[in-house]
Amino acid sequence: MNHLFEFLLRQGDNALVLGHRMSEWCGHGPALEEDIALANTALDLIGQTRLWLELAGDVEGKGRDADALAYLRDAYDFRNLLLLEVPNKDFGHSILRQFLFDAFQVPWLTELSQSDDERVAQIAAKSHKEALYHLDRSAETVIALGDGTQQSNQRMQIALDYLWPYSGEAFADDETDVAMQEQGIAPLPSDIKEIWHDRVNAVLEKAQLQQPASDFAHKGGRNGACHTEHLGHMLATMQILQRSYPDAVW
Amino acid sequence: MLCGDMSHSKVTQEAPVFQLFASRPRSRGPFSGVLNEAIVWQWLEDVPDPEIPVISVVDLGVVREVTVDGIAVEITITPTYSGCPAMAVISKDIESALYAKGIDELSIKTQISPPWTTEWLSEKGRSRLERYGIAPPQPTGGPTHCPYCKSTEVEKVSQFGSTPCKAQWRCSDCLEPFEYFKCI
User: With a CB-CB cutoff of 8 Å, which residues 2-61 of chain A face chain B?
Assistant: First the structure.
């Protein structure tokens, strides 16, 4: 297995799948400002996707570029976290998911920007600036909604109970992670679990939300073993143009 | 194979339904003066940012390097935000501007490291933004005052605005909403 390729797909697919989910909000945000914010976040993520998948294609060396990887792979070849592919529900649910991911992404990209692989370090440094901004906003909004009205608090708690079992997958190290650590490309994801946990807890506390007790984690997205049924549906929408009109260009 | 035919005719169609980019101006023939980096930088000063046309791509700080080798020009640009759609337009606008000056051998390289920062905005760019009604970036993370009435009573409306590089703010005195160029 080409571990570096695998690792790069994970970075790119996380950004792509969440970017697409966020883009689904375009025109449906609860307020104009929020709509714009969600679309901008999606745009940043899709921009980051291009950088990661372009490099993944180079590393693979089979002539696939970022577009080929994004539009012409099927669900079982995707390497994103399950957390990011579950469908949008209400606005609070999407913001909470974004927050759980941002809280991971900020320390993760901080580490990756020190990678021994200069290409990885460069993409991480660029993405990190954007992730910081996303985290500011998602954390602030989670607090505003959680510590808001009784109804908004309840809905955020429902969202948290639903999303929590998906949050542990990010820290489940496997052989690709070990290989990356050995090559000095990335730390083990489990190394940043504590930072993530502290940050998430601080925000949940301010938001008056109860962290679920169970640490059960759904897994199978980042190694492609078992995606949810939702990813295929999402890809059907996302990929339809390239699937129907192969090689169509903008 | 209706689908195949349709896609084929679309690819070969010469006049697009709408034009994303300004059409390429006619070249006045090969550039005949002495070509050097300084001249190219000067030309680039006249290429406006497509979304904030009061500042140039040089003021914005996206042009990192210009190298001239004989009649060949290489320009290195650094994207502002990784997903910013204006970047494609900026490349195209630079290409058109240089072509109009008679430069045929042009390559535009994208470089992501070091990542773009608002510190690269020129002083001229900052004051032009302010005059245009966009508060320039501040290290404190928010505008110091309203670009219209200069009041320091300002509040954030949203962290994101009409383009990836801006946020929405409002003045509590004159009540005007205004954009703030985010500091990254």
Answer: 33-34, 36-37, 40-48, 50-51
